[in-house]
Design goal:
By secondary structure, this protein is of the alpha+beta class. Among the domains are: 6-89, no CATH class; 131-173 and 248-408 and 481-497, no CATH class. The chain is built from 16 helices and 15 strands. The protein has helices at 6-19, 28-36, 54-67, 75-89, 93-106, 108-121, 127-130, 158-166, 236-248, 281-284, 318-333, 401-404, 413-426, 439-448, 456-475, 482-497; strands spanning 134-140, 143-149, 199-203, 206-212, 222-226, 253-255, 272-276, 287-291, 300-304, 310-315, 345-346, 349-350, 352-361, 364-373, 407-410. It has a ten-stranded antiparallel sheet with strand order 3-4-5-7-6-13-14-10-9-8. 40% of the residues are buried. Residues 501-505 have low confidence and may be disordered.
């Protein structure tokens, strides 16, 4: 049974900090006094420390603050408060950076291993929330895809994301990626970051920072971000920066969201990349058709067996990869093919860009270039190369870097909806109300599956994974059929010969 005495919980939190080496024994009295301030206490009685998970310690202290009217009883206020408590235990930036630099001199992996654990120990990464996410794998024609139902973030509307990029920047910090977030107390519309620490790195000769994502969609999910609040941009410099990163951290991959709405990520106002120590399904997919690019015969190239349109480049010389990637990008920016519904621009709005991913393969550098196009129509107002309306019951959000690589990040609503669908199927109840958006899909499943109490949950997970494969197919600019392959080949010829776009408008 957990205890709620305030002195016991303060003692438990201080002991946690000592056990995780966040503080030293000589800091003990100081830290206790610092913890008294947010709790509006002016005295402390030492208490026996009994084992208790960090989540429970923070809950007890936060409950006490609610009960005494210090904070309101809502999720945001509680998060702001318990982050303030953890911030008191978190060492200052100079200590964190010094430790990281010393460990990096030993081995880059040793440094990132330590920093990742540190980010969890400080509760910047809330392990107990991440553990509640649903995760599974689905075998498809493209290999085994990863699926997660994320319970930490609300589902975003693609139009809102696009509007966010166009909106004027104001406030402090300017966005949730800016370096000024380090130690920031937060507010109702901005998360607290007192327990957040960042590591300076140099990419492309410019100051950048390394941090971890608090949501951890995959192992060691890190973010590299520009020290300057500058918009996302895919260009030759971006390719060079990605390749610089995997030179610094050869055990990590790194990738960038595209730089246009719909095909970009949720934050387009601040240049950043996402990486980590994880092998995504796309990385495992082989090259199914080799390509030779004129003037770049030393760079191995090919089209990857993947639902989206991916060109893979491999070479020990990273500059050669960057040069070829830029050549392909510049060609793609201005390319149109009416037969494939690829238009470089309409009414002055550009549509073509690339989602790039870099990694090391032994002594080789490797970069995947995913061709993207964000054109919309009346039939597909959220994007022609975006999950179409019939898939929105599962996935409506933008297909960004993580999804492109084969990890579905699905909205939290699906956890309850899948449970309710399982019950409705087994009890033969009509699919109505909030579940009505799934009705047509369930009817299709009933035509191909025999549902039982033992298999229904597994079938639903399997079929969600298959929907995600269709999502990626919708996002692919060149479809995996004869017409699509022919159109892809036209683009490759265009890159090689610099010929005019096919039926360009």
């Amino acid at each position: 049974m957990f205890y709620t005495n305030i002195n016991e919980n303060i003692s438990a939190l201080v002991q946690y900090g000592l056990d995780r080496k966040l503080i030293e024994p000589c800091d003990k009295a100081f830290i206790i006094n610092q913890l008294l301030t947010p709790q509006q206490l002016d005295s402390f009685e030492p208490a026996e420390v009994r084992p208790m998970p960090l989540e429970q310690i923070l809950k007890n202290l936060t409950d006490d603050a609610v009960n005494r009217g210090i904070i309101s009883d809502d999720i945001t206020s509680r998060d702001l408060y318990d982050t303030k408590l953890m911030g008191i235990l978190t060492p200052p930036p100079r200590e964190v950076r010094s430790t990281f630099e010393a460990l990096y001199e030993e081995n880059p992996k040793t440094a990132t291993d330590w920093f990742y654990k540190f980010s969890k120990d400080t509760d910047y990464i809330r392990r107990y929330r991440i553990q509640k996410d649903m995760r599974w794998k689905t075998v498809t024609d493209y290999g085994t895809l990863d699926v997660t139902i994320n319970l930490s973030k609300p589902e975003k509307d693609p139009k809102a994301i696009a509007a966010a990029k166009a909106a004027p920047q104001s406030g402090y910090p300017k966005c949730q990626l800016c370096a000024e977030n380090e130690g920031y107390a937060g507010r109702m519309n901005h998360p607290a970051r007192q327990n957040h620490r960042i590591i300076p790195i140099t990419i492309g000769g410019k100051p950048w920072y390394l941090q971890y994502s608090p949501y951890v969609y995959y192992n060691e999910h890190c973010i590299a971000f520009n020290a300057e609040h500058t918009p996302m941009k895919i260009d030759k410099a971006a390719f060079e920066k990605l390749l610089d990163f995997v030179t610094i951290f050869p055990h990590y991959f790194i990738g960038s969201n595209a730089d246009l709405p719909i095909v970009g990520g949720s934050i387009l106002s601040h240049e950043h990349f996402q990486g980590g120590c994880y092998t995504f399904p796309m990385e495992k997919s082989p090259v199914e058709r080799k390509i030779v690019f004129n003037g770049f015969e030393d760079v191995k190239a090919g089209i990857v067996k993947w639902p989206m349109s991916v060109i893979r480049l491999t070479c020990p010389d990273k500059q050669r990869i960057a040069d070829l990637a830029d050549h392909i990008l510049q060609s793609w920016r201005g390319y149109s093919d009416a037969d494939a519904f690829i238009f470089a621009e309409t009414n002055g709005e550009p549509h073509n860009t690339i989602t790039p991913i870099a990694r090391r393969r032994g002594e080789d550098y490797e970069m995947d270039l995913v061709l993207r196009n964000n054109i919309t129509t009346e039939e597909h107002p959220l994007g022609v190369f975006h999950p179409h309306a019939e898939l929105h019951h599962i996935k409506k959000e933008n297909i960004g870097l993580i999804e492109v690589m084969g990890l579905a990040v699905l909205p939290s609503r699906l956890k309850q909806e899948l449970a309710d669908l399982e019950e409705a199927i087994l009890m033969d109840k009509p699919i109505t109300g909030e579940l009505e958006k799934h009705a047509k899909w369930v009817q299709q499943l009933k035509e191909t599956h025999t549902f039982t109490t033992d298999n229904t949950a597994c079938i639903l997970k399997l079929e969600v994974g298959k929907v995600f494969a269709k999502v990626l197919e919708h996002a692919g600019v060149y479809k995996r059929n004869m017409d699509g392959e022919a159109a892809f080949d036209r683009f490759i010829r265009y890159v090689n010969r610099g010929e005019k776009s096919h039926k360009q408008i």
